[in-house]
Amino acid sequence: MILGIFGSPEVIWNRGESLRDYNINSVFVSYKNLSKDIIDRIRKEGARVYAEIGIFVGKDIVEEYSDLAPIGLDGKPLTPIKWYMGINPAIDWYREKKLKDIRGILEEFDIDGLWLDFIRYPCHWEVLSPKLEQSSFDEVSLRKFEEYIGIPVPGITAQDKARWILDNRLEEWTRWKCEQITSFCRDTREIVKDINPDVILGIFSVPWREDQFDGAIFKIIAQDFKALSSYIDVFSPMVYHLMCGFTVDWIRDYSLYLKDKTKKIVVPIVQAVDEPSRIDNLEDIIMVSLDGGLDGVIVFTAQAVFEDETKIEALRRSFLSIKGAI
User: Fold this and answer.
1) Residue 38 CB-half CA count within 13 A
2) Could you give the CA distance from residue 175 to residue 119 in angstroms, rounded to a whole number?
3) How far is residue 83's CA from residue 256's CA, in Å, rounded to a whole number?
4) Looking at the domain that runs over 2-320, which CATH code has it been given?
5) How many CB atoms are located within 10 Å of the residue 181 CB?
6) Which of 246, 318, 257, 323 is nearest to 288 (CA)?
7) Full-model pTM
8) Residues 208-262: pLDDT tens digits?
9) Tens digit of pLDDT for each residue in 15-69?
10) CB 75 within 8 A of CB 158
């Protein structure tokens, strides 16, 4: 049973407290914030360390390397949405760079698991009405897709070719996109096996069902959960209920749906961030995640909890109610 927080545990240590005070047995932290000292202290307090790494995301790097920009149906790069800018998953040099980063993390740090984040095609999904944009119709992706289907894609402009694909080969296009995501996870699994087979491989997945948004989990996001389950040990759906406009019960219902779909361990990551309105029922949010056959919970974020005394007590009560977790 994972009782986890997402973010640096220093917000707890700065209070003069330890992870044991809250029965926290798992810490999910960006690999950029990892250090030997932090890992050692987490372990001394009886918890496991899971590193998070964002994959196909980054506004700054897209601005520096224009070939990473996802090309939309109009033949133009997608525009950022607030802080979010997705990256085209089909660019080989970038994929190789991220796999090299993953190898470096595993070689440098003694961690218990690695969670892939932003492992999808571009979409700012965590809103009530997400903007569903097909991508990426760049030269590299179009060439690779032509090899996949075995014929040239008709058309002169990227816009022409994009329209032909969506009108005539949408099913193949969707399968090809899903393979870009699945194959990255497969390559990551090979690196894990090579360096430390005991490391758990997880992903933060988009919490959509197959029948939502006209199959956008495949067509837009390109996360094929059944295919991914061949390489992923733990799925962590990002069930941010307020952001997505659902009730608390949806957290459990969707997570059980995903568990049935993948036949894998499912540990939902739940919202403690006050967006779009204040979270005043964190204990209910956590406890619904620990009920009904799921495998734990991750609270997003540690910072959001430990700046609010009401949330702190909700986390303490709910985690301490789970006996034998550490």
Assistant:
1) 21
2) 16
3) 31
4) 3.20.20.80
5) 23
6) 318
7) 0.97
8) 999 999 999 999 999 999 999 999 999 999 999 999 999 999 999 999 999 999 9
9) 999 999 999 999 999 999 999 999 999 999 999 999 999 999 999 999 999 999 9
10) yes
Token representation of residue 284:
């209910």
What six digits make up the tokens of 280? 């005043």
Angle between helices 92-108 and 170-195 (to 10 degrees): 30
Domains of the chain by residue range: 2-320
Q: Which amino acid is at 141?
A: S
Contacts of 48 (CB under 8 A, 6+ apart): 25, 26, 27, 42, 112, 113
Q: Which residues contact 286 (CB under 8 A, 6 or more apart)?
A: 270, 297, 299, 314, 315, 318, 319
